[in-house]
Design brief:
Shape: elongated
Number of helices: 4
Radius of gyration: 26 Å
Distance between the termini: 62 Å
Strand order of the largest sheet: 4-5-7-8-9-10-11-2-3-6
Low-confidence stretches: 1-37
Helix content: 25-40%
Strand content: 35-45%
Order of helices and strands: HEEEEHEEHEEEEHEE
CATH topology of the largest domain: Lipocalin
CATH class of the largest domain: Mainly Beta
Number of domains: 2
Structural class: alpha+beta
CATH superfamily of the largest domain: Lipid/polyisoprenoid-binding, YceI-like
Length: 210
Amino acid sequence: MYTKMIISVLALFFAFSIVSCNQIKKEKANVDQFDKSGKKYSIVPKTTTIFWTGYKTTAKTPVKGKFTRLNILNSKRTNTAREAIDGLEFSIPISSLFSNEESRDTKIKDLFFGIMDQTELLSGTLNIVNDTLANVNLKMNGISKEFPLSYFISGQMLSMQGTLNLDNWNTEKAMKSFHKACEEKHTGNDGISKTWHDVGINVESYLKVE
């Protein structure tokens, strides 16, 4: 009787194992099928916007703007949104800078970027580090430097945020030129004029899915 009970238990165990194994194989097959024939993600310029935030006065008053053009040099269609942005190469025309104030835009283009080397474009590569962090290798003023961006993906929506320090691109001469032209407008209630060297970056993109 005891032996029969053990045999019955073992039989149920092996039966359960076979069913579970078949289920796992089935689920893996579904994943493989999705990877091979599922939807494809890609990032496109027309649904991607790069916003920037500069700061003035000792109170660190924000000045916001964006770039209205983005060039993607190696667009690709991938199985996941993360793969679509990893290794992405891009360039941003300086001429597309926009802050909703024409006189300010002219000063930034001519008296800041215009003082630098190779001022026509900003360019770089975006590399994924982990599930929440990416590094941007940005070329500005003829110098390539990395800065981090945190990112979040929800469905087709991609959001990225970070801060870059302009000193890392040897912009002292350009900063002095720009600050001199904006000295009065960058003076706060304390009578001190200040232009900050850190710039906030925010990227919003609606990924294309096919």
